[in-house]
Write a structure and sequence with these properties.
Elements (H helix, E strand, L loop, with lengths): L1 H24 L6 H22 L1 H10 L7 E4 L2 E4 L7 H36 L1 E4 L4 E5 L7 E3 L2 E5 H7 L9
Length: 171
């Protein structure tokens, strides 16, 4: 279990660093296929790159397994070892796990909230069937046009101003 958590923590750190580099260097590129390929490459590298170079396991072993061998006493086949209660390597590891799981839970909650809001917006709008996609018109003025899957969502004012660009659509 410890190896899995240490891999997840190290992988998420690598993912965050690579994504920050992407935002800094490549996010302004106007080539969606290129951007998508770079992002998928970042995901693959953060997931597969660590096991290939062994950084995650070496990092976890050096950080969390710093316990020294404790002296043991053997009498009549019974072995007793002295345990020092002052070592706190496990305490740091527990905090790292709690911090990581809290961040993962927070990100999951935000993703679910966003998905529910998006589904409500798509469900509540007027649907126009076009060639290969569904145009969703919403009454909200604060919505900038965007696409999600086969849906293109825009407010009625934008559609009224530039609706001829969308081609022939029917209800």
């Amino acid at each position: 279990m410890g190896a899995v958590v240490s891999f997840a923590v190290a992988s998420s750190i690598v993912l965050a660093l690579l994504y920050l580099m992407y935002k800094w260097l490549f996010a302004s590129e106007k080539q969606p296929r290129y951007n998508r390929a770079v992002i998928w490459g970042i995901y693959a590298l953060s997931f597969v790159g660590l096991p290939l170079c062994g950084v995650a396991m070496g990092f976890a072993e050096s950080l969390f397994s710093s316990r020294e061998e404790q002296p043991a006493i053997t009498l009549d086949g019974i072995t007793a070892s002295i345990v020092d209660g002052t070592q706190s390597g496990g305490n740091l590891f527990s905090w790292v796990i709690v911090l990581y799981l809290s961040g993962a839970a927070f990100a999951t909650v935000l993703t679910v909230i966003t998905a529910v809001r998006l589904a409500r917006m798509i469900r509540g709008g007027e649907h126009l069937r076009c060639e290969g996609y569904v145009l969703v018109l919403t009454a909200r003025r604060d919505v900038a046009p965007f696409s999600f899957g086969r849906f293109i969502v825009m407010n009625r004012e934008d559609y009224g101003a530039d609706g001829q660009i969308m081609g022939q659509c029917k209800k």
